[in-house]
Amino acid sequence: MSSGAIDDLGFESRTFPPSTEFVATTHVADDSLYREGTANPDAYWERHARELVTWSTPWHTVCEWNLPFAKWFVGGELNVSFNCLDRHVLAGRGDRVAFYWEGEPGDTRTVTYKELLDETQKFANALLSLGVQKGDRVNIYLPMIPEAAVAMLACTRIGAAHSVVFGGFSAQALADRINDATAKVLITADGGWRRGEVFPLKPQADVALQDTPSIEHVVVVKRGGNDVAMQSGRDHWYHDLIAAANPMCPAEPMDAEQLLFLLYTSGTTGKPKGIMHTTGGYLTHVATTFKYVFDHQPDRDIFWCTADVGWVTGHSYIVYGPLANGATQVMYEGVPNFPANDRVWSLIEKYKVTIFYTAPTAIRTYMKWGTQEPQKHDLSSLRLLGSVGEPINPEAWMWYHEHIGHERCPIVDTWWQTETGGMMISPLPGATVTKPGSATRPLPGIGAEVVDESGTAITRGGGYLTLTHPWPGMLRGIWGDPKRYQETYWSRFPGRYFAGDGAKLDEDGYLWLLGRVDDVMNVSGHRISTTEVESALVSHPSVAEAAVVGANDATTGQAIIAYVTLRGGLTVDEHVLREHVAKEIGAIAKPKTVYFTPDLPKTRSGKIMRRLLRDVAEGRNLGDTTTLADASVVTELQRRASEHPAED
Ligand code: WT7
Question: How far is the CA of 607 from the centre of ligand 1 (A)?
């Protein structure tokens, strides 16, 4: 079906209601929350702000909306670290474990809420002693260690905004972000563990620091044990600061609209954007969605989100959402295949993880490694699975459902963005019948519509995903560039937020994300989403992962070029895959060429770099495209990708 925007070629019809066993203990088993959220979104969010967040001063206005600028809980005051730490300790839950942390080499730490609060207070005092004041920006460049959460929480305690830069980013990317934010302090580590080796962070930071005049002090956590240079007067060991710090640092009430953090995202073009998130609305959004989407109950659940704190997923669903809910989590430092391909499953078994949240790219990688890996472990503690970051292909969803969830665990496919702060479209696991590959419906209190080229809402078929009214976790702007904020998100469809994703609506009103509209291919006038062709390819039993791009073609405008990774040990002919796509979604979507490759080029956060593949397919830079099936070319592509980390 066509709306003129993006064709609807879908083919998935399986449905999965929540089991009676799951429904028996769920927070939400019916449509009451949906009804409440639809009837009055502001009242819905206000109720949750009251129930899930502790305020020192109440707000006078729930939402002030001067398109495109929103303020939430206006006049209210609260402290985020108080909400994540103190109130749990004050309620007698200080001994509850906040993090079961495991380093890649296998070393472990258990951090309780009381310990996390003590350390956060000390580090907040250390930051104050280095001259950090309310409103300042602090950069964080750390591995996945508990100190990352401490550093973020310490900033919130004193009203400094953090800007976390993923530890895999280059010195140049770090310097750009520090300079854009004019950060005063950088918090880093000597190094961290990855793939059995220490990767250096401080040495990278030193390169960045040659060109970051705003930085006055650098704090270095000892983790990797690698040699680092310390510049006297500027650089300080974290453990020395903690040892010297006053243990008490009262949480200072902050205005609900105080800047909480900046997080840089590049989107498709131009210099990275410092996405601004503020305090009261953001915390309300992530606390509420964490509780309901993960059906979280603190006395029962062990939550593990595999994201890095350098991404928004780590901010919202490792640090703020879970800690506001008093959750117990697993935090893991390293890669999923060290020392072997079953590390993730061994951690789930060891810590009895009940809720597991990961990305489709990871799931497809586990598919590639084979079912024997999860089969080595007892995964019976799991009760709920989540997915985020990309559309999840129906076959990856089914694999997750069968081989990880053992057909017992609901899957929540959560659509959101750095800009939205928290989840926007997702099942409520006890109330929503799921379909493999669909993020289902907007969450309660969220308004989403699919529109056609002219901005008119459609009820069926493919188009552009827009958000229709403000939500508490929404970005408040782009740091230093209000005009770009308006142009990027609020101009294409007047009165609506548009951040670049295609989506389609099926006959039940379910939403299916179709990927970035920049990736949509135009074949003989048909607008075809990469997601649908990739999902058709992945539905072939031999295929683990696929990326398709539209390359210029003299006859059809664009032709579909597919790059395919096979499941461990399997083979298949190119023409079989082409026919398979034709059968699943139609001859128009048949790839012209299929290349087999052991790996696909991905961004540091795991998204397939289709733009790069398009360059390859169209012969730009890399010359002869037929050589791409050669792994060394892919390695080359990946090297280039890692040199352009802005493409997250
Ligand atoms: C983009 C945002 C959300 C945190 C991690 C990524 C894609 C995200 C889904 C999903 C289909 C998804 C979208 C979105 N995306 N989740 N469940 N289904 N697509 O944050 O780096 O800001 O990326 O990721 O294209 O716009 P991000």
Answer: 9
